[in-house]
Write a structure and sequence with these properties.
single chain, 293 residues, Oxidized Rhodanese, domain 1, 5-stranded parallel β-sheet, 11 helices, globular
Length: 293
């Protein structure tokens, strides 16, 4: 059975602590194959019903776009309220002692990191991991897939200990230029700079720096090495000890940046309404490519 790596802080350097955190948050196909029979392991396949039926990691349960998020008339992607999230997680077979491995069916890795973000909000951040490279890497490394659905099973959870990982527009406005807080726009640079408009406005939230979500993963869907991630965050103005607040269009792409930040020891939060909510409120935007703090 997997358990989080526990080390006495006094025996570790900061870099070693960050490596341990990444080791907990990112697992390889070899690790997953070796632990597939662990009784508390829950594997989540993030994708479509057709893709799942065509082949998935044996024992994995399907998470489609309607699970672990809610949509409304104004905002497309939001973390479910605690009672609904509790019910959905139990329906996926998740219990208090579960360790969850999440992977994506396709190259859209931000779908898997969005699920991981929701699990982190639910208090399962230290017991949830990403399968590095997703289903493609599982197959590439010679592991078999299954077309059989996972056997039914209901989890049993205590009330969720919801974590303060989600922030609002008011929080963003009050912290965007505050020392120690770094606002990160995770969208593609063309949207950040206002070259192409989406939603009801163009440009970015004043004070935000650009770190496109596509930069934190390699072309093969694997998370970039820690040194490269640290360099990306440093280039976006993140200093040691800073807190990161990330946003995108609706809260999906920014989850990849939030996840990457966690693996290098940066404390992140996500503006769940993102630019969709910001635009709806008719709040100000910038179009310059290099805003200062």
């Amino acid at each position: 059975m997997w358990k989080p790596l526990l080390f006495a802080a006094v025996l570790m350097s900061a870099s070693a602590a960050q490596a341990a955190t990444r080791d907990q948050l990112v697992v390889t196909p070899a690790w997953l194959a070796a632990h597939a029979a662990d009784k508390d392991l829950v594997i989540l396949h993030v994708g479509s019903a057709d893709g799942y039926a065509a082949g998935h990691v044996p024992g994995a349960r399907l998470v489609d776009a309607k699970l672990l998020q809610v949509s409304g008339p104004e905002l497309k992607v939001e973390v479910p309220p605690a009672d609904l999230l509790h019910k959905q997680m139990e329906g996926l077979g998740i219990s208090d002692n579960s360790h969850i491995v999440v992977y994506n069916e396709t190259g859209e890795f931000q779908r898997a990191t969005r699920v991981l973000f929701t699990l982190d909000v639910a208090g399962f951040g230290d017991r949830s991991s990403l399968l590095d490279g997703g289903l493609a890497e599982w197959k590439k490394t010679g592991h078999a897939t299954s077309t059989e659905p996972a056997p039914p099973g209901q989890g049993h959870l205590a009330p969720l200990d919801m974590q303060p990982k989600v922030v609002t527009a008011d929080f963003v406005q009050s912290h965007a230029k505050m020392p120690g807080y770094d606002l990160i726009d995770a969208r593609d640079a063309i949207f950040y700079g206002g070259m192409v408009a989406k939603m009801t406005g163009d440009g970015h939230i004043p004070g935000a720096r650009s770190l496109p979500y596509t930069k934190v993963f390699d072309s093969d869907g694997k998370l970039k090495p820690a040194a490269e991630l640290k360099a990306l965050f440093a280039a976006a103005g993140v200093k040691p000890g800073d807190h990161v607040v990330a946003y995108c269009q609706v809260g999906g792409q920014s989850s990849a940046v939030v996840f990457a930040a966690r693996t290098v020891g940066i404390e992140p939060q996500l503006y769940d309404g993102s630019f969709e909510d910001w635009s709806r409120r008719k709040l100000p935007v910038e179009t310059s490519n290099a805003p200062g703090k």
